[in-house]
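To the wet lab folks,

You asked to see what we're planning to order before we commit. Fair enough. Below is the target structure as tokens, and below that is the sequence we designed to fit it. If anything looks off to you, flag it before the synthesis order goes out.
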């Protein structure tokens, strides 16, 4: 029997198909290359939501006016998010596998 509320919730989530959630509860954020799932601050972010994020950032970047400095700055922020997600998907938790990155 769980000795506290958090353990009970984690066991319930695991029994309902959330997998071994308790293991990820106290780990740093990580991306599972096999499932396409991001575990971050206690959230489980699915591949579908990650795809939606990329689409959203692409849409927002496309709306930016590159002639306006503030809008161009926002476009760079969106581009940074897009590229970070792409790298996460490509390399998971081990970005050092890319020969183009400093070690």
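Sequence we intend to order:
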């Amino acid at each position: 029997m769980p000795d506290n509320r958090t353990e009970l919730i984690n066991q319930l989530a695991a029994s309902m198909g959330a997998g071994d959630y308790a293991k990820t509860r106290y780990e740093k954020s990580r991306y599972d290359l096999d499932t396409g799932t991001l575990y971050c601050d206690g959230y489980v972010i699915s591949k579908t939501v990650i795809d939606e994020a990329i689409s959203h950032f692409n849409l927002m970047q496309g709306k930016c006016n590159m002639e306006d400095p503030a809008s161009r700055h926002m476009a760079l922020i969106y581009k940074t998010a897009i590229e970070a997600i792409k790298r996460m998907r490509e390399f998971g938790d081990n970005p050092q596998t890319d020969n183009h990155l400093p070690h």
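Structural context that might help your review: The two ends are 46 Å apart (CA to CA). The chain has a mean pLDDT of 81.

Thanks,
Computational group
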